[in-house]
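dude i think i finally got it to work??
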Amino acid sequence: MGVKLMVSMWPTINEKSENYSEMFDRNLLIRAAGGFKRVFDFYGPQSETDPTNPETREFVWKRQPGGTGYVR
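look at this
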């Protein structure tokens, strides 16, 4: 069926995170229709990462302890 499982250990990111600007600039976050950023309040302003984007998975995986890159 071509279905692959992905477990997200970091499904959201706070706008104050050191990684937020880079992820936003590289389109690694889910955006609303029209390309507008989508933010909700959960212990501060949060955006959802886009796990359907291979670049997002690579970016997040490399920042996990011991992460050496996306494992296929």
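The mean pLDDT is 82.
im so relieved honestly
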